[in-house]
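Model: Ready when you are.
Researcher: Fold this.
Model:
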Amino acid sequence: MTPRPPKIHAPLEYEFDEVLEAIADEFKPGIKSATARPFVKWAGGKRSIVPELLARMPETYKTYCELFLGGAALYYAVRPQQSYLSDINFPLVLTYLAVRDKVDELIAELKIHATKHNKDYYYKQRIRLSQEHTASKIGALLIYLNKSCYNGLYRVNKSGEYNVPMGSYTDPAILDEENLRAASQALKGAEIHQHPFSQAPIREGNFYYLDPPYHKTFSSYDGSGFGDKDHQGLAQFCKRLDTAGAHFMLSNSDTPFIRKLYAGYNIEQVQAGRFVSCKGTGRGKETELIIRNYHGRRESPADGQSA
């Protein structure tokens, strides 16, 4: 019987330690298999209309850019290969950075908050939010306050101090470790920045999703508000995107002011659920607009692949 010739494999292009680390990550429980979702509740969150947004995304684009980050529901649904994420809210951006880069430290802090949670503790931590300097501690504080405050609202006074009262939850879901780890993986490789929308780089072929504080609604997320002049500035920014050959999709409330600002673009109505409001009676279905500088609908959900 003729012996079988030995099978020769091509050499790996990785170091042995890198291969071991990849194998360990592959079998680490609760990360690769989990689907990430927003880890904070945010006014104007898009979870209820993500299918509508996905259906209206461009077929191809270079970099996914989201400039009013909030809960990032669309980002998690798309999972783009290249992304630029930003928000003007400094504690929120630090929280995203902590989830991306320091998730173990953040989870350890959240475990402490979950154990000590009561009314007196809540109000002491509310003061700490503007005093801490470590991203993981700020991130854990923001998530803790967001999960245990009234209606999941983020609101600050003119001095930038968080001032939402505690909610009446009997057992708030302060720590969701599995989702935080899934979100951390989903954010790996994403550029995350803190600045106003107007400072974002404009590039031909990029896709920009814009979800500002809605016109004539609550907007005290960073102490400066978002009024008519800000909406006009955003419309001018969208004009610059259009001129540069970028794709943009914008969500906003259905008001004559907004319709006039974006006259000439593709404007569609959708029904969105509202679960975060400064008033408990402010929840429910609302008509809002999706505005784009391109036409067409996808036949299947977005796959998150960049062109």
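Researcher: Now this one.
Model:
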Amino acid sequence: MNSRKKISYFIIVFIFCFVSKSEIIPKQNTLSLYLNLSQATNFTGKVTYVNDGDTIEVKRDDNGETERIRMLGINTPEERYKDDNGDWIYDPEPYAEDAYHYTKNLVDGQSVYIYCASDPDYQRDHYGRVLGVVVINGRILNVELLRNGLAKRYLYNENPILKIEQWVKAEASARIRRINLWSHYHKNRIVITEAYPDPPGNETDTGEEFIEIKNFGKKPVNLKNWLFTFDKSTGYDTLTSNDFVLNPGEVCVISTINESDFRNLFPSMPQNAKYLKSENDFWFANNPHPTQQRIFYLVTPDKYIEEALTFDLDWYDGLRNGGKSLQRVNFREIETGQIGENSADKSLFKADTPNPGIVE
């Protein structure tokens, strides 16, 4: 080996050793985009086990204890569920294994930073798990899972360290690209065309609240065993266990009371509009925290997301107290869940008098 090659060889070895032993230094500009760092504390540790896509175990550097970390702001698909006897059954939802392997390949056995709220009330969930953001070499694992369509946002507790608008945008980027969890989005062309989430003075579900859908496709769709959820961390409710076919061009209103009672509430509803009393009751949280988390998911029997609609009652003046519903006016664009004054989604909906069964 000549002298020039020797020098190059030692330079490569030196660089490799330096990089392999270098301390993880989070990129402050990236973290501050997604986190309120003034509300956060952090610790370092080594990942000793990956439970699933959004849960890991970390041995802390400061005290040697092993903590289970439940990643903040996201929920990955479930790999298993408990049966009626309380036994765990392995039956992964779509992309659950992909999320698990993504997390495992990135952090298993690696040193990471864990950011969590400095306020003790937000540090742990009721299982005792640390509610944290996982950072490795400046990469925020929670956000990467969202951006890659391997997780949905899950923001119910309005943790003070999250800059929620940025987490919503991260998920929206995956929806727009229709990747992974969003690859079947609107595949059957079933679209939510109207929602009446919060009638004036209605603090409980009395049947006025409803979801309206329309089949914009060219094929009949049987809604038997379709599922729905309001962004629960786990589990779905069954829409109907009976055959219920929605033909091309047909409109269906879904609520929680008998059809005759519903039509008495809304006598202008056309007779040819279909009505479905959901098998399991659903209701809208009147005061969700944060508002960005008011999400209705419609899911196929094989647990692919067909439709998702985010409700933010501050989108429109008077929507909440003015007796107006949220009505879709642009059916070709994707509802991403991005909210606020500058949201592109605002062009997809209008606020108007509830009009179940009629799609203009």
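Researcher: Key takeaway?
Model: Confidence is low (pLDDT under 50) at residues 4-25.
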